[in-house]
Structures are given as C-alpha cells and as structure tokens.
Give the backbone structure.
Amino acid sequence: MTNQHYDLIVIGSGPAGQKGAINAAKLGKRVAVVERDGMMGGVSVHSGTIPSKTLREAVLYLTGFSERTFYGRDYRLRNRISMEELASRVQMIVRRETQLVRSQFNRNRIAELDGTARFLDANTLEITNGRERTTIRGDHVLIACGTRPARNPLIPFDGKRIVDTDQISVLSDLPREIIIVGGGIIGLEYASMFAALDIRVTVVEQHPQILDFVDREIVEALSYRLRDLEVVFRLGEKVVAVEIEAGRNRVVAKLESGKAVHGDALLYSVGRQGNTDNLNLSAAGLEADERGRLKVNEFFQTVSPHIYAAGDVIGLPALASTSMEQGRLAAAHMFGAPFVHEASLLPYGIYTIPEIATVGQTEEQLTAAKIPYETGLARYEELAKAQMLGDETGLLKLLFHSKTFMLLGVHAIGQRATEIIHIGQTVIAFGGTMQYLRDTVFNYPTLAEAYKVAALNGLNKV
C-alpha cells in the first residue's frame, strides 16, 4: 500500500530523532517516525544513556557510597545487593521515559510507525513489521538510527558471562571479579559502578592513557579515585583471545604481551557500530564507512541534500545531549528555520564515580595554540556544601586568558560536576571574565560557589 506521504520521515526515535521530529512538527510539517517495535525512545532509553545513568544512581543509593565520608569506608546501606534489585529500578525509569516520548509524539501529531526501514529510492522507504510491509514517501528523511556495541570476532560473546554493554542486564547476578575491555567513557562508567559495588575490576585499554581528550589533572584525579577503589588498569595492552576456563566457569582474557587476566565475567566496551547495515543505503545514493557511520556537512546533510543524519550514526561526540541538538538543527535547516550552532562549546558529562564534566579548551590545547593562560582552582574540601554531601576530593578548575581574563575552559570532577559545568558554559558563551565570577553572588551553601572560590584563586595569581 503506497499512499502515505510526509514532509519528513525520521528513522529512529532516540534523542536525535525525537528532537528532529518534534521541531519539524512545531514548524507545521507532517512527520512520521519509524522505530522497531518495543524500542520507542531508541537505544538511549532502552540500553544506553537512561539505563546506565539510572544504574549509577541505584548503585550510589543502595551501597551508601556517598555516606562513607561520614560513616567510614566499610559503611553499607545494604550488605547484599542483587542484579534484580538494580534492574527493577532501571525498568521503572525506562517505562516512564518510553511513555514520555510517546506522549510528546502524540501531542505533536507525529505518526509512529513500528518496524524497520529500508530505502527503495531516495524518497521512498519500505517499513517491515513482522509479515506486514508498508511503503511511504517523504520530501525529507532524517537518519537517526543510532549505534550498537561493536563486536570483535575474537570475543566469544555468550550473553551470560561474556557480554557487551547492551547485555549488562542479562548477567544472572553480580560477579565477584569482572574484566572490562575498553577504557573509554562507557567502559570507565561501568568500571566505577562495579567498583562501588565492591567488585574487583580490571580495565584493559590498548591506548597508553585513558580519556585523552579530557584535562590531564582531572583524569589523574579520576585514576587515583578508581585505583583507591582497587580498580586495576592494564594500559597499552591488547586482548588477543578470550576463553572460559574448563571446569571453573571463569573467564580468562589473554593479552598480546603474554599476560592473562581472570574474572567471573567480561564486559566488552570498545567502540560502536552504526545501525545502517539494513537501510539499503545504496538505493538512496548513500554509503556508510566501515563502522556504519554517515558523513554529513555542517548542516547535517548527507551527499543526498534532502537526506540528513544526526546523532551517534554520524560519529563523535556521540552524546545524548549533542544528538538532541543535532536533530533539532537538522530539522531547522531542512525547513528554512533560523538557527545558530556553536559546536566548540559542547559540554561533556562523564558519569563515572566521581563524575567528570568539561567544556571549552584544555591546558594542552591552549599550550599548543600559544595562548597565555592561568588557572583558578576550587577544591571541594573548601566548600561547605561539598562537606555536607560527603565529597572532600572534588575539584573545579577554571582556565582563563592571563591578559584579558576571559574564561576559556572549565573542568570539574566530583559530585554534581555535570550540573555545575553549565555555569561555566554560559559564561564562556557570553565572553565573560574572571572578574564577573569574582563579583557574582552565588547562593550559599552550594557547589556553584566553587566558581567564586576558583575566580579568586586565579586572580590572586596574576
């Protein structure tokens, strides 16, 4: 049946697809969103951002981790925590988020089409749902199909003890020891969660350092905190084989250097693969790279100008927050609505324990660009609010031009770092200075007060 025509067809209902669809609907366009049955909200809601961050909050609560400053390192809210307890909280939030997405689509009269999409030509898609097939046409298409965990043929995934990040919930129970292959953002987030649960964690990363795009001082502070939780790092090491030990039901990862790492389970977290392999891209004149990603211009257009792509499927930064904005901007461009895109001021939030946030330039970037700068520091141990929260090791670091005093970069580690980073983001965006932060009155006691403390610290140096 071929009689459905839309101004915009969106493939995928994750952050990029949602915001692109809603923005187009707000502009008065007829919009349809295609999503696999049971996956409304995309990977972000069902196996990515929402589940992992909900799991983190559940871990912090059930372990009483944040209270150990007051009651000692051995303090536990629960002595025994099951995977079932953690999963139940995740499932509750996933249901609510799914309902929220559906409600937003309904309010904006966006058609929801269950099934998988493939191009028949540059404007025509076939939607398959079980045995049913429907053909639809669109003036514009937004590909926002997201990614899945990349697989390595050397890793014998069994969905029980050897899993990827989409399969965390299928672990029958929490292991005593776990190997995490990959020291990127996702790998480190899970490493810190498992470590907070008193699980022995070994992180294997083939690069010589972790998070090489983050300020080195912040990364060193994170490394120290994770090692304090007895996380073992095997940096500059490559996994060449993974086996189940006969008779012991334990996993062994063999490294290129000849070492072997043992654990009750292994989590593989190295890279993501774009979900473009079943889209029949060639029919639309498109081609993905070896990781299934699509190339776009500054307006998120592919080589076929009426077909746009946004979110993880176009590669870095591959954050839910940036994906939302990319989807919104893509819809604005395709229908001629005005927009401004400031790509250099995208904040990063890394939900390790403790969490990290960063925006603007790093010391390494400023040094390479030969920009004279100075630093201003505020340690959480100086802040009354941080003492109340039980965080004595957090840090806010401001980088500013040593002659104009303009704020150039903000880097934070500690509780609520991902929240307070946005103050710095706003000040940088409006060309604010350290004097502005010094002279601004912040509520007391708050963590936001760290900006004033750091400004005073920095200005005292010049």
